[in-house]
Specification:
Elements: E1 4-7, E2 14-18, E3 21-24, H1 26-35, E4 38-41, H2 48-59, H3 71-78
Parallel strand pairs: 1-4
Antiparallel strand pairs: 2-3
Amino acid sequence: MYQQMVYDNMRVAVKKLAGTEKEPTDALLQLSLYYGFQFRFCNVCSGNEYLISVCERLNHKAQSNRDGRSAWECLQEER
């Protein structure tokens, strides 16, 4: 099960926009409570904003199966 879901400004997820704050719909709140996930909102059609930051964090994390080097360091070495 996913720990966090990312939504843009779709009507089934956002009840009201108040400046930069977005109020979730009752259905989204119930769904998140039932399945036990958290949600966050991104800019319209920009779910990749979150994905890029997660990928960069994982690629720079030291890995035990690579002698403590990160995937980024291994890539640089191969280049």
